[in-house]
Design a protein that fits this description.
There is one protein chain. By secondary structure, this protein is an alpha/beta fold. The chain contains 29 helices and 41 strands. The chain has an 8-stranded mixed sheet, with helices on both faces. Strands 11-12-10-9-13-14-15 form a 7-stranded mixed sheet, sandwiched between helices. A 7-stranded mixed sheet has the order 17-16-19-18-20-21-22, with helices on both faces. A hairpin with a 5-residue loop joins strand 27 (about 575) and strand 28. Residues about 1-10 and about 620-690 have low confidence and may be disordered.
């Protein structure tokens, strides 16, 4: 909507208030400002509201709006009087309005900071979370316009509206006056209001995904009349998977008398079906998609899977076509997977949906898989099938113009059928939100990510996303901070996913290695060391080892309290005739599975070389039927396809006991760990049942098994640490002048700041940093030798003389720094050497600075990346660290734990902690400095860059020798404010 000449001329239409939102039931709606063009929509909307709702809004019978009412409710100045509407299909379903008031309740203008607010929601849409979403958006608008409080009068019987205000999480006061409940809400966001907002976001977005992957009915639009083609293929796959709902074939070219195709009801349009359709799979040319979307929207379809190509992957014209597709679908309350998608699969026994081009549904399992590439999706499905792995859900989102990996993280977070989330991503549409959601999901189940297009420097075709300026190594570090398991290839993703889906998390890095090949054991040992694990010397069972020997050795290793995980290596047995006997794989698998089932819950991985049937037998599900002890030792358990989806003894609500605990039953603690139960002791003569056992992953190379195990070790450690989150120490609040810094930043930027920002001068930067307790060692300019001597006399000897020219700054290796100048003669001599070597003083811009205590030179930086947000970085100063990229990163705001990990995660960290007999530096002072910088950029988004270089960290205390700060108008935050869908 655009403003009309009748709108207030000095307040332009605020199009940034427009937003698409997901409601509680998973449908979408659009929130936008009300304009003078909306008079007819408002009247139509009001006519559909019940008399009871009208009474609650106006405290009296109010059957219709007068012309004066309509004018008042559609004319706003967007400052003191604001109205927002929620629309579906272009029609109003709810409105909200605020009017600024003074202390007496009369209409007012700024600086009055209170407003009266009132809502009205159409009865048919009550209970969908419409009012809650509207409250978030009108509150954000009010804060933008300088309003700090809302006042509302609500009738006591209007329980729904009272609950909306009560549950919002804002600080509020309530009183009963003149027969009405008087509510006052403080609009400053609180921890509770943010938590409420994000909980509602999770429920709504998860529900919107559920509507797409668990439909009660599916229509395939574009089903071909002849075999073959995309639409006919999807229909065939739906039928082959045994979809439990109703299926329809739709094609406008069907003959009027054609009743069925492939046994499915055939129709020429969605409207002809005459029954509700939950999901439409669109497989028509791009130019016919709008017609199909309209047909779906007007007949209540809840979601779309658009397989059609010809969108953003085809350039600017296609990108605009894609944006229009999203706008059109959302206007009807529908969400989209695609376009250019490969499809979706849901293996839940209650759904059995294969609305994709995959010829066969993968086996049911505990892994959720999301990809942005159809080709990669095909490869992953094939790889998982070969490895015997099963999936709970599969989504190939193509251009992911709407539904993205973030939405599926919301869904998988609480999905009881998914224990591991695997994502192949080529771009991150909302990186800050992804990090937040990934951190929350990783706290209960593993999230494994492969990031494509890492080094191309461009966005993949079809993906309109913010461009990040930070290197891929930084992205990887930030993902790991959020608990994401970042791997480099899809093969590594499958390797890690198999281990995490079927094995418990390791309690530590201590690895036992056993097998019948000394060489393979040594390769595994070396791989463990390379991955930072702590392997025990390999146990060689010799080539004569039998499956019973493997079983006994594995049981012994699992029972050892000094072992956290086991890698079993196996090569084919060599018979008496010298030929390899590889046919005993099933027997060996049975032996290993029995040992794993009856021992303490610890992860087991198998590395094998050409043992026929071993990998397949290890990947099969086991039965809980009673099996004689001899049979358990010598024969594989019979696979039971019916129990394959639930092939685990304990649901994901347990965690392995620490490795220091004695062998015995595992102790449930944290959610999300996948364990098998230890078999209870049985009496003599009893015939125990073999416990249900998770599959044991098998790998063709030691390096692959160990890499997957190392990822599990690091993830388990992150989970343990995340259980007790870090915090920002309270003592910082006593030494930080947040209000003074804000006032100074406003003054430095001025009333009309340059959008490009400005770099602060040395004194300005020092003053701003000082308000956060960061002291920069003074420097004095030295334009000539006499000025240098005068500066040294003022600062006190010994001093340092250094250049500050941009091309020489922080380059001690070029000779631009002279240290420990103890007197005037040494200073004059150094000045002459400096100018003779590097150039005139006017070019070098030399300065004098008093010497700092000896220590380790480090660098602390914070930058605002347009895609990832505020990033805090740390490394050692100097060319070697810069060349090797030895810098660690954390997202802001950083906690005390983040700061401690930051300085310990660089490869050169031993230099800080007593390497080769040197004295350890004051790490506590360094961590405090990092926290202060983090607080500065978090409190003031106008601070877009801070660099402290060098920071000399001594055995006691530290000294900041150089600092630079850059300010700019704060960038837009996509992760804060009211809920809204991204627009790509």
């Amino acid at each position: 909507m655009q403003p009309t000449p009748e709108q207030s001329p000095h307040h332009a239409y605020p199009d940034h208030w427009e937003a698409d939102v997901v409601l509680r039931d998973g449908g979408t709606a659009r929130i936008r400002p009300i304009t003078t063009d909306d008079a007819e929509r408002l009247v139509s909307f009001y006519e559909q509201v019940s008399d009871e709702s009208k009474y609650y809004r106006f405290f009296a019978p109010y059957p219709r709006l007068s012309a004066k009412d309509v004018h008042r409710f559609t004319h706003h100045d967007y400052v003191d009087r604001v109205g927002l509407a929620v629309t579906v299909g272009g029609e109003f379903i709810a409105t909200v309005r605020y009017d600024r008031i003074d202390a007496t309740g009369r209409p007012a203008s700024a600086p009055a900071d209170e407003a009266e607010v009132a809502f009205l929601v159409q009865d048919a849409h009550q209970g969908r979370g419409v009012a809650s979403a509207l409250l978030e958006h009108i509150a954000a608008v009010a804060r933008e316009r300088g309003i700090r409080r809302f006042a509302a009068e609500v009738l006591p019987a209007n329980n729904k509206m009272i609950k909306v205000f009560r549950d919002a999480g804002y600080t509020q006061q309530r009183s009963f006056e003149d027969g009405a409940v008087h509510l006052t809400l403080d609009l400053e966001p609180t921890a509770e209001s943010l938590a409420v907002q994000r909980a509602r976001e999770q429920r709504a977005e998860a529900r919107s995904v559920q509507r797409l992957i668990a439909p009660g009915s599916v229509a395939v639009i574009g089903t071909g009349r002849n075999p073959g083609g995309v639409g006919r293929t999807v229909l065939r796959n739906l039928l082959a998977a045994g979809f439990t709902g109703r299926t329809y074939a739709v094609n406008s070219a069907f003959a009027a008398d054609q009743a069925t195709i492939d046994g499915v009801p055939a129709h020429r349009s969605i409207g002809e079906i005459g029954e509700p359709v939950d999901l439409a799979v669109v497989a028509v040319p791009a130019d016919r998609v709008p017609e199909a979307v309209t047909d779906c929207g007007e007949h209540g379809v809840q979601g779309l899977v658009v397989l059609s190509a010809g969108y953003a992957e085809w350039g600017a014209e296609g990108r605009e076509r894609q944006r229009e597709l999203v706008r059109q679908a959302r206007s009807y309350g529908m969400r989209i997977i695609g376009p250019n998608a490969f499809g979706v699969i849901n293996n839940s026994d209650a759904v059995r949906l294969n609305a994709s081009l995959a010829p066969e549904s993968p086996a049911p399992g505990r892994i959720g898989l999301f990809t942005q590439s159809g080709a990669i999706g095909i490869a992953l499905l094939s790889g998982l099938y070969r490895r015997g792995a099963g999936l709970s859900t599969f989504i190939s989102a193509g251009n992911r113009a709407d539904i993205s990996g973030n939405d599926f993280l919301q869904y998988w977070y609480e999905d009881p059928d998914t224990d591991v989330a695997l994502l192949y991503l080529e771009s991150l549409g909302n990186p800050r939100k992804f990090t937040r959601l990934a951190r929350r999901t990783a706290a209960v189940k593993p999230v494994v990510v492969v990031k494509g297009a890492r080094h191309s420097g461009s966005t993949p075709p079809g993906h309109a996303v913010p461009v990040s300026r930070i290197p891929d190594a930084t992205v990887s570090a930030l993902m790991r901070q959020a608990g994401v398991i970042r791997v480099d290839t899809v093969t590594e993703m499958v390797d890690a996913g198999l281990l995490l889906a079927d094995q418990p998390l390791p309690a530590g890095p201590r690895i036992a290695i056993l097998g019948n090949s000394e060489s393979l054991g040594l390769l595994t040992y070396d791989a463990c060391l390379a991955e930072g694990l702590r392997p025990r010397p390999p146990r060689d069972l010799t080539t004569a080892a039998t499956p019973q020997n493997f079983r006994d050795a594995l049981a012994e290793a699992l029972a050892d309290s000094n072992c956290d995980a086991v890698v079993v290596t196996a090569i084919p047995w060599v018979g008496e005739n010298g030929e390899a006997e590889s046919g005993d794989g099933e027997v060996l698998a049975a032996a290993l599975r029995t040992a794993a089932a009856t021992g303490p819950a610890k992860p087991v991985a198998v590395v094998h070389v050409e043992i026929g049937g071993l990998a397949e037998a290890l990947a099969a599900a086991t039965s809980t039927a009673a099996v004689p002890p001899v049979a358990r030792a010598s024969a594989p358990a019979a696979p039971d396809a019916a129990t394959a989806p639930a092939d685990r003894a304990v649901p994901p609500t347990a965690q392995a006991a620490p490795s220091t605990a004695p062998a015995g039953p595992s102790t449930p603690t944290a959610p999300g760990d996948h364990l098998t139960q230890q078999r209870p002791d049985t009496g003599p003569g009893d015939t125990p049942a073999v416990p249900t056992l998770g599959r044991i992953p098998a790998y063709p190379a030691a390096e692959r098994a160990v890499r997957a195990l190392a990822e599990a070790v690091k993830y388990a450690q992150w989970r343990r640490q995340a259980a007790v989150p870090g915090k920002v120490p309270e003592f910082l609040d006593d030494t930080i002048d947040e209000a003074g810094a804000a006032a100074r930043i406003d003054a430095l930027l001025g009333p009309d700041p340059d959008p490009r920002g400005r770099s602060l001068g040395h004194d300005e930067a020092c003053e701003l940093l000082g308000r956060y307790g960061i002291t920069v060692r003074p420097t004095l300019p030295a334009p000539d030798p006499d000025a240098a001597v005068a500066a040294a006399a003022r600062l006190g000897y010994p001093v340092a003389l250094k250049t500050t020219a941009p091309h020489l700054r922080h380059r001690a290796d070029l000779g631009g720094v002279r240290l420990d100048l103890a007197n005037e003669a040494a200073l004059r001599r150094a000045y002459g050497e400096l100018t003779d070597l590097l150039g005139k003083p006017s070019e070098l811009q030399p300065v004098v600075q008093s010497m700092a205590p000896r220590g380790v030179d480090t660098v602390v930086r914070a930058t605002i990346d347009p895609a990832a947000g505020a990033v805090l970085s740390f490394g050692l100063a100097g060319a070697p660290s810069e060349l090797l990229g030895d810098t660690a990163h954390r997202l802001v705001p950083a906690t005390d734990r983040d700061a401690a990990e930051l300085i310990r995660s660089i490869r050169a960290a031993p230099v800080l902690f007593g390497w080769r007999g040197s004295a350890p530096v004051d790490s506590a002072a360094l961590e405090e400095l990092l926290l202060r910088v983090s607080r500065l950029v978090d409190d003031h988004p106008e601070v877009v860059s801070v660099a402290l270089e060098p920071v000399v960290v001594a055995t006691q205390g530290l000294t900041v020798l150089g600092a630079s700060v850059r300010l700019a108008p704060p960038p837009a935050r996509t992760d804060l404010g009211p809920r809204r869908l991204s627009n790509y």
